[in-house]
Amino acid sequence: MMKNWNLNDLYLGFDETFNQDLNRYDKMYDDYVSWINGDSSNPKTYIEGYLTRLETLTKHGRTLGSFVNLTMSTDVTHKEAPIYMAKLQKISRKSTAEDVKFSRYLTTIDLKKLAKESDLISTYLYQLELIQQDAKHLLSEKEELLYAKLRELASSSWGQLQSITTANLPVKYRDKEITLSEVRNLAYESDPLVRKDAFDAEIKSFELIEDTVAMALSNIKREVVIMNELRGYTSALDKTLETSKMTKATLDAMIEAMMDFRPHFEAYLQAKAKYLGHEGNLPFYDLFAPVGKLEKTYTYEEAQAIIKKAYYGYSKRLGDFATKAFDKEWIDVYPKKGKRGGAFCSNQPQLRQSRIMTNFTGSLSDVLTLAHELGHGYHGEVISDNRPLHWNYPMPLAETASIFCETIVNHHLLSQITDPKERLSVLENSLQGDTQVIIDILSRFLFESALFEKAAGPVSKHVMKEMMLDAQKKAYLHGLDHHQLHPYMWLVKGHYYSAGLNFYNFPYAFGLLFGKGLYAQYLKDEKKFLKNYDDLLALTTKTSVEACAQSMGIDVTKKDFWMDSLDEVKKDIDEVIALMKH
Known about the structure:
There is one protein chain. The protein is mostly helical. It has a domain of 125 residues: Butyryl-CoA Dehydrogenase, subunit A, domain 3. It is 66% helix and 3% strand. The protein contains 27 helices and five strands. Strand 4 and strand 5 form a beta hairpin. Helix 4 packs across helix 8. 42% of the residues are buried.
């Protein structure tokens, strides 16, 4: 029943091999620092030397850092992993001043001219130009070094506190004690009393830690505000858009379309409330209530079979990837004490592998979550062919493959069903996900926007709860019962707790709607799409969001594209509402 992931291809443990590689990595950083401080009179040679050394650091650092992070993800109380994390952070800090120095050096160089003389510089021209642009936001070398050191004791530690506090939180559910992940998964149960009791238990458990976690979130956001002011950013959102390689025009077009479509989701949620027997609007604890008659749960083996069949129906490469991930034990499957909640994928392109963490309990939603994370892994498979500095994609494009793969599996499930009640069950489950990624994400975006407006000073738990309730009312309209909302959604979502990843909410909406638009293209011309799609995934690490979309003939700065994608969701809303009336 355990189904833990196998990390042996990274390391067997914090053993002699790990420590030897850690020492080697330390020396690589010394060489990197020495190079930047060396002779820069020949720009071509100097920049090429920088890039080759950074490639080497990227490969080795990803393996070391991933092993530490993956170990901590499934055991937040691990004694050795945090110590090694601190060592890795200390090593990476060695180049803080030199990175600033190199960034400023690039502002004196005509990179486009130099790219004509060097294939390596040409390959990384876009990245180098981003470094040039970012240089205007840098502090002095000493200030950057000081912040790098203090950040470990400030925002990084506050983030770890939230992770540890929630992972170890005992939840008293009925007559037993369970984990937070387990109680949250009960929201998908068919028994309405189970869902209500689980929700009440979850809320009650948060009362035990609300002071601690509110202080963590407040201090993280205050740090972000202070640093952004010093760096000259107009706002945290401004910085996130730059990091995301995305324009404000794209975000505005998408958010405006989402706001316009709220009434359609409101109608769906009100229809679901009536279907479930509520006299008023839908209480938050019934957001994930199953409908129809597909009450079965899935074993992990059944989930594998469904996903592989759906993936092979799309392409052999995708199916082979899923088979490899399952067979080689790349997945940590079930919830357990000390394991982080939620799910994620950690790509390891230096090994041509990935590792996936889920908290699988057998619901249909869990099957689709697994398909979603495997989509991230497939994205990693494609970018493994890229050079090392082209292994990271911006947040909005990070969800492209995952949403697409989730859609493939959902359509596969629907194609197997003839019974209207079973179709309702699968279709409504998919709509639950769409509601989360469009409407709940909208509430999180509104909440974080409001939080930053107040983050010049301390923000109390009371204010956070009020802002979250207000954001939910604005996003869900009257789809949800305003007396049965979730005031602690800020506490349970780990994305809020990183000083370097602010507004990690709208990228999910981008990914869903971009994925829906891509899937519509796939249905029109499958053969042509197969080749173009993998090229798109490879491109996600090399250019802007807008340029990637344009490679598929899509203009994401125009509201029309987002409205068309939302129209695809509306088809499901209309069918679900009709099916719930019968």
